[in-house]
Structures are given as C-alpha cells and as structure tokens.
Amino acid sequence: MVLTNVLDLAKQGNADAIASLISYQMQSQGITAKVTLQDNCIYVLLESATVPDQKTVAQ
Q1: Count of domains for the chain
Q2: Which of these, 9, 16, 30, 35, is most buried using a 10 Å CB contact count?
Q3: How much of the chain exceeds pLDDT 90, in percent?
C-alpha cells in the first residue's frame, strides 16, 4: 500500500491501516500493533518479544 492510501484508510477507521501505521512507527523497538474496532471504540494491542523501556516508548 502506498503511504497516502494507508493514511486515508486510517482516517476512515480502517483497523488494518491503523495497525500498519502504529507498527511502522514502533518497529525500531520491536513492537507490533494489532487493532480492532468494536462498538465505536478502538482497541490497540501492542506486542513485543521483550518488555521495552517505558521511558523510551512513551515519548
């Protein structure tokens, strides 16, 4: 997917597009995002093989 298409899809509430954008931003810390939409709420699950340093990730 082209980045602009992913951004457009994310703005429309596409869970896969949102997960892709979050995962892209967090890949350097080894974190992957999973996103689901349910009852007008967004649920984001962040997964990593190790627990990352909170101060680094929460910037």
Answers
A1: 1
A2: 35
A3: 66
- pLDDT for 1: 46
Partners of 46 in beta bridges: 33
Distance of CA 9 to the CA centre of its chain: 13
29 closest CA partner among 42, 6, 43, 47: 47
Three-state SS string over the chain comes to CCHHHHHHHHHCCCHHHHHHHHHHHHHHHCEEEEEEEECCEEEEEEEECCCCCHHHHCC
Q: Which domain holds residue 15?
A: 3-57
Q: What is the mean pLDDT of residues 21-36?
A: 93
How many Å apart are CA 50 and CA 7, to the nearest integer?
29
Tell me the two tokens of residue 37. 């939409």
